[in-house]
Amino acid sequence: MRQQWRRWLRGPKHGLPRKSIVYGVPRHPGPEHLHALLGQYKSLQEWGRLQGFDLDPVPEDLAVLDEAIDRFIEEDGRHRQMSAVESEAGPFLGTVIVSTIHGAHWRLWPNGHPVVRLASGRDLDVIALADDRLRSGQPRLATVYADAATTDPDNQT
Length: 157
What we know:
The protein is built from eight helices and three strands, in the order H-H-H-H-H-H-E-E-E-H-H. By secondary structure, it is mainly α. It has a single domain, classed as Four Helix Bundle (Hemerythrin (Met), subunit A) (Up-down Bundle).
């Protein structure tokens, strides 16, 4: 009874998207199309090079990115140069998960917000998780990946 009012309301069932929305693509883009759109993080790679490391879509680089985020927040430079990290950390986390966890793929919620769907059917809002990481320091990106890899019963990395 609690959610019956949603049936007659028009519009997205997941509220407003946070920080990221995919629009201007076919009504129901396939996972490969979304992977091509969301797997681009050139500004984040450039920021990483300025910090002294390269980023590839592998789980080990999530720990490297976590350390760099910690250093940068401690130095209080967050608001000055973190725009690349703020806008691309979520898609980078999602790309690592999609690239390395069997059965994981990008999908769009009805409001256009991209999430990673694990083989178990669980959706990970990687954009929101990365945003929380940058705001509060938790959860660490490497921990999110480890949780997705170990709790998904169909994972065969």
